[in-house]
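This section describes the prediction task in plain terms. A model, or a person checking by hand, is given the sequence of a single protein chain and must write out its three-dimensional structure as a string of tokens. No templates, partner chains or ligands are provided. The sample shown here is typical of the held-out split.
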Amino acid sequence: MQNENNTIFDDVIRTIQERHPKLLLPLFNEVFHTSYGDSEPIYRLPEEYRKVVSKVIADSCNMVQNRIYHVEFQSTPDGNMVIRMLEYDFMIGLNKIENKEGNFRMKLPQSCIVYIRNTSRQECHAQMELELADGTTVLYKVPVVHMQNVSLDEIFEKKLYIYLPFYIMRYEKQYALIEQDEKKRAHFYQEYANILERLQVSLKTDISLYRDLYDLMRKLVDYMLKKQTQLKEGVDNIMGGKVLPLPSDALREAESKGKNKKIVSLTRKNYTRQLDVKSIADFLLEDEATIQKIVDIIAKDPNASDEDIVAKVFP
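The expected answer:
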């Protein structure tokens, strides 16, 4: 997303990407016909993989089972979106060029565009023909997803919880009408009560995820309904009693410490195998500066515990 007015949408996607990247797995399953489970490891690629010449950074770029997935979340129609996608994908591909006995091969990521707002255009793909120097043409084609076409039942059946914060946006052109009509308001409130009840049941074993999705939904409700004070107040009353009293920040801190300890352990193991810092960083999909700090500590004190190194490198 590039429009300065869309920073709140960027914030929501960034929060999901950083705190709950596994929410992307059901999206990959739906769009690319994979079958990843909830526990499938997913790794976010370093920024240099996602940054193009114009200094714009791709929304979401992750690796699962050695396959790279690139997703752009778009809030407004953009006729040049396919050009931007190709630019992103080539930059990502250039970072993953393979050399087998002198034969170079560049593999582009699995990519898609997700429109979070209602759009009049309903294309299933964005595509562009590429003409090579010898006259050969190659069709570059990426799937397009329109959130407005995904029903609430589908969201819960397919675990597409990543769509829920943006659910409020499918009614964007009807806010004023809903606010003025008592029956429509009642239906609208009931739908949000239903969403929260189903989400509590679906995520009863993952309070951290429930709390964060609740916070993101409420954030977008507040933003989208700021001109419809009556409608917003009704939704606030419904959502006000649905927060579970377990803070997710404490859980995230514990999860982060476990992840950091694993990074230190794997760095130590690969360092003893005489891999250089760049190779270790590439393998772990971490930035070189972090790996260098870990290696420097291990080189100075081989007996330093993983816990001590974590405390120094990840304060």
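For orientation: Residues 242-247 have pLDDT under 50 and may be disordered.
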